[in-house]
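Submission checklist for the structure archive. All mandatory fields must be present; incomplete records are returned to the submitter.

[x] Identifier: Myelin protein zero like 2
[x] Organism: Equus caballus
[x] Residue count: 195
[x] Sequence attached
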Amino acid sequence: MYGKSSTRARLLLLGIQLAALWPTAAVEIYTSRVLEAVNGTDVRLKCTFSSFAPVGDALTVTWNFRPQDGGAEQFVFYYHVDPFRPMSGRFKDRVVWDGNPERYDASILLWKLQFDDNGTYTCQVKNPPDVDGLVGEIRLSVVHTVRFSEIHFLALAIGSACAVMVTIVIVVVLFQHFRKKRWAERAHKVVEIKS
């Protein structure tokens, strides 16, 4: 009924349709998205990823920077088997690899923050055959002092509770000490009276 070429064409068409429906693997990147840090300090730009392919020597990580006030995108850092720090520019001698590919971590450390470091940092990970996927972004704000956040409030509450507990323990111990001292003085007076 159908010829060999017709059967081949149908099989080819079926193969193309299945390939189109087959889910493609992509690298997924996770970042904090927004980060605030104090001028003059060091900050870890955290970038983790997931990939269907096992991590190997083909893995590459590229970090770039877009200034907050506009301007051209700038190179920050590159990793492929070994880290490659910038040889010139604003990030020279200020950025270091802090990732661990076996743990799906592509983070970097940025030293001695400056106000002109405000902007968006992008983390792109390629792990062939997983080379597609969104680029991770971190919007960094360099400030004079960090705003009072929930973490600070929690630390203050825990610290205050500990201080109150220590004060109560000291009061109880002192109360017991003076109580025993009073009992000892009364017992001594009773002994003197009986003598």
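[x] Structure attached
Curator remark: Confidence is low (pLDDT under 50) at residues 18-23. The chain is about 30% helix and 30% strand.
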